[in-house]
Amino acid sequence: MSLKAIVKSVISGDSLVLRGRPGPQGQPPKERVLHLADLNAPRLGTQSREDEASYLPWAFESREFLRALVVGKEVSFASIHSLPSNDDVPRDIGTAEVNGLDLASEILKSGWAKLKESKREPTPEDFSRRELENEAKEAGKGVWKSDELPARQVHYTMPEDSQAFLSEWKGKSIDAIVEQVRDGSNLRVRLLLPSGDHQFINIGMAGVRCPRTSTRQGEPSEQYSEEAKFFTESRLLQRAVRVQILSIPTPGATPFQTGANPSAPAPVTLFIGNVLHPAGNIAEHLVSTGLARVVDWHAGMLAAGGGMQRLREAEKTAKERRAYLYANAPALGISRTSSTAGGPARAYEATVIRIWSGDQVSVVDKDGKERRLQLSSTRGPRLSDPRQAFYAQEAKEFLRKRLIGKRVKVTTDFIRPREGEFDERECATIRYGGHNANIAEQLIEKGLAGVVRHKRDDEDRSPDYDKLMAAEQVALNDSRGIHSGKEIPAPKPSLNISETSNRATTFVSGFKRLGRVPAIVDYIAAGSRFKLFLPKDNQVLTLVLGGIRAPRTARNASEKSEPYGVESLEFATRKYMQREVEFEVDTTDKSGGFIGALYLNKTENAAVELVRAGLATVHSFSADNLPWARQLYDAEADAKKERLHIWTDYDEEADKETELQQENDDAPLKSEYIDVIISDVRTKNGLNFSVQVLNTEGIASLEKLMKEFSLHHSGAVTLPPGFVPRGGDLVSAKFSDGAWYRAKVRRASPVKKEAEVTFIDYGNQDIISFSNIRPLDPKFRTLPGQAQDARLSFVKLVGEESEYHAEAIDRFRSLCEGRKLIANIDHKEGPLLHLRLIDPSDTAAAQDPWSCINVDLVREGLASIDRKGCKYLQSYAPAVKRLKEAIAEAKRGRAGMFEFGDVEEDED
Questions:
Q1: What range(s) does the Tudor domain occupy (predicted)?
Q2: Cβ-Cβ contacts under 8 Å for 351 (sequence gap 6 or more)
Q3: Where are the alpha helices (DSSP H) in 750-864?
Q4: pLDDT band for position 91 (cuts 50, 70, 90)
Q5: Rounded distance between C-alpha atoms, residue 792 and residue 837, angstroms
């Protein structure tokens, strides 16, 4: 009985593998082997044996004749004799026809097989076939050819030097025959090399991955693996194709390899490439059918030729149809990263104001909102890694040169949620210039960043992800940057020439001689304080803008910024951070900072711009001698007129009255001697102390209050539910001596559950746990705090930078702390008293009111005249005279800070 089947493959010139048609659900059909009766064709060789020797070298040509004639076509066949099955695949000896032609007759006619000797009685059909064989033999056809072909080498194993083979054939189109389909996307092919040799290789289809088919006993195959394998087999098995080898399996770029001479890579078992059939690229059909997924990391090989884009389109088709692997794919058109109400705009224009690293920048949008952005799907080198530090700096500089201060187009791709110690981050694509170039793509192509490998179903990625992968492939091929394998030492730290005043002074004359010096703004500490980097000399310095005073910003959590200090810093940061500028130097300050001017774009004076914006004031003393003094005063006048920032509440008439009042305030006060006790000494930010004025009703009232206060707290004081101390609250607080005192909360931390307080009757300051703080009972609120803040008149102790600072503090404490003294109020600065302290036991003080502890400290070389802090100084001529005499005496005796010579600070 004649049956019909499809020829799946050809084993040799006389044997076929047949299959039926697929099942209703696409199930792979059953197979059987058919050996054509009475024919004997040469067997092809394998890895373990050569082609059948009696017919060398015609085994391949014999197989090729039958392959080209029948593979993929329907044949009619009949079984004459059944053989034992092999791996459950039936085997038969029989006959077959294709398109009405008897296959055995066609093979004999072409000379690609011989007739077997038969012991049975010959039939007319046998005579006919014998005649066909003789005709082929006489004509020298097929295996009967008398002139042998040149010896052909067949390499059944992968090339030993896979890298060299890849280099020789990469991207070239090679004729091939698919010999085996291992799974839907992995094939074993026979390359027909131009030399005539055959090379077997394993090749994975570039850009796709099909479910794996199990090759081990008892191991299950992945879902849809059989369907994918059949899809490929039915179209490619034993078909003539063209192969393009593109790469070897390296799913991630490998930057920063260790060692300058890495060992040779191990031989690979698979190449990655394209398998092209006359009907097209099977990879695209596999994806569109839903039997393969797109492999992202192959984008580098395929994006340039548009191959990755075609695969993405095929993937979109499969998702729309929800076919096979994409049955559970999310509906298209619904983006998990779309902007939500109150969230960032999807696309907007902004100005780049800061480069944080090789993959993070800050921008300001049209509404003035600052955003810190992460370049989507991009990972820059890390400065903290010694192997990456050089490239991290190069990447940061690459972005700075191209983006800083530029108007760019930002597209928010997704929001990366907060995770562990990492804050939430807006991930975006940034384009700039007339060609809308993607800065991340340029960065990666230069080898200054890598591409993040996302998980398969992770849609939170750059919309240009394939282009980024292609850019990385270019950098990888050309061994650029992080892919070069070179370990370049980390950049040397820059020399800080503002580290000390002495070091800075040595550079002043050189800077003055040069005039304007080019630099890059590296950091901004306050509106008028800049850290500059000099690339040519690898130096950094601190530049303080001369002629102005900008409000200070808090240096730590315990400090508070001056009004508009934050705004002044923000203005300077947005305008000058990381910009290429020029600066001029006039002099230096005590800490090693250079005082001078900063220019942007040759003409824009940073000091003038800050004053004009109302974020700095003119410092007349230092401004009057500057060439641009007039510009500063004009800018300040404009800011006052517009009432900008600092000048929001400016009242011109009140300002004039204040100036007159200040002139009067600087006049000497009438002598006012009081008895005091120094209750607390504070050395932070200079020297300040608290005093209690004795022999007053307040002190007597305080003694009575403290007795009642102590009695009140001797019992259990109930803490009100939900009580949390807040800044400015009057409270009862337990001091380190175990007693309770009245206090005022300066600041409180609900997180740490502690508050910084000032004890209002003694002036001490301390940090107290919430558990030791109670609300102050109203009956203890009537008496004002008895501690008053004070400082020394006319003088200041040596600064913290001096080695005599600690000695000066100890000396002041020994002379004053806890002692009853006589004080004269020389000046009042709001609640702060400027005091001349007199030791009542000093006999000289009884004769001369200017013989005081203030002068004694100067005489001992532990203090100097405070010409800047005491504007009233010149109104007290006797004090100035006595202080100058004390300085002269200290110098003669080499006392204190004059031990090694005249080091008195110049405070002109």
A1: 723-783
A2: 363, 364, 405, 406, 407, 408
A3: 805-816, 843-847, 853-859
A4: very high
A5: 8
| Cα dist from 186 to 201, 228, 230, 503, whole Å | 11, 11, 12, 69
Q: For residues 476 and 247, give the distance between their C-alpha atoms in angstroms, rounded to a whole number.
A: 12
DSSP symbol at 479: T
Query: 730 with 781: CB under 8 angstroms?
Result: yes
| Mean pLDDT taken over the chain | 87
User: Taking the mean position of all CA atoms in its chain, how far away is CA 681?
Assistant: 47
How would you write 482-522 as a 3-class SS string?
HHCCCCCCCCCCCEECCCCHHHHHHHHHHHHHHCCEEEEEE
Q: Name the β-bridge partners of 529.
A: 526, 544
Q: Pick the closest to residue 286 from 210, 212, 188, 206 (CA basis).
A: 210
DSSP assignments along 787-816, one per residue: EEEEEESSEEEPPTTSTTHHHHHHHHHHHH
Q: Which comes out higher in pLDDT, residue 521 or 118?
A: 521
Determine how β-strand 594-600 pairs with β-strand 580-588.
antiparallel
Q: What is the arithmetic mean of pLDDT over 382-403?
A: 94
- Alpha-helix residue ranges (DSSP H) falling in 593-696: 606-612, 620-623, 629-642, 652-665
303's tokens: 């994006």
3-state percent helix, strand, coil for the chain, nearest multiple of 5: 30, 30, 40
* Contact between residue 62 and residue 143 where contact means Cβ atoms under 8 Å apart: yes
Give the position of tokens 């803040």: 789
Is residue 609 a contact partner of residue 575, using CB atoms and an 8 Å limit?
yes
CA 90 from centroid of its chain's CA atoms: 62
The radius of gyration of the chain's CA atoms, rounded to the nearest angstrom, is 45
Dist CA 865 CA 885 (whole Å): 12
198: tokens are 């055959």
Give yes or no for residue 311 having a pLDDT over 60. yes
**H-run or E-run covering 114:** strand 114-115
Cβ atoms within 10 Å of 463's Cβ, excluding its own = 12
DSSP 533: E
* pLDDT exceeds 60 at position 213: yes
> Strand, coil or helix: what is 610?
helix
Peptide bond into 840 cis (omega under 30): no
Q: Which amino acid is it at 355?
A: I
Q: Report the candidate in 575, 496, 478, 510 with the shortest Cα–Cα distance to residue 541.
A: 496
CB atoms within 10 A of CB 342: 5
pLDDT at 335 over 50: no
Task: Number of helices (H) and strands (E) in the chain: give both, helices first.
Answer: 22, 46
Place of tokens 């932070």: 684
C-beta separation of 132 from 39 below 8 A = no
pLDDT tens across 669-692, in order?
A: 788 788 888 888 887 777 888 888
pTM: 0.65
Of residues 810, 895, 825, the one with CA closest to residue 858: 895
Per the CB < 8 A criterion, the answer to whether 214 and 162 are in contact is no
Q: 3-state DSSP call for residue 221?
A: coil
Backbone angles phi, psi at 155, to 5 degrees: -100, 105
The Cα 535–Cα 519 span in angstroms is: 7
Give percent of the chain above pLDDT 90: 52
Q: Give CA angle at 684 (679, 690), nearest 5°.
A: 20
Which H or E element spans position 471? helix 465-477
Mapping DSSP onto H, E and C, the string for 410-441 reads: EEEEEEECCECCECCEEEEEEEECCCCEEHHH
Task: List, in order, residues 6 or more apart from 779 with CB less than 8 Å away.
Answer: none
Q: How far apart are CA 686 and CA 452, in angstroms?
A: 52
Strand, coil or helix: what is 654? helix
The amino acid that residue 76 corresponds to is S
Q: What are phi and psi of 117, to 5 degrees?
A: -75, 130
Residue 102 pairs in a beta bridge with 97
The pair of three-digit structure tokens given for residue 431, joined into one six-digit string: 């384009």
Q: What is the pLDDT of residues 749-774, one digit of tens each?
A: 888 889 988 888 888 888 999 888 88
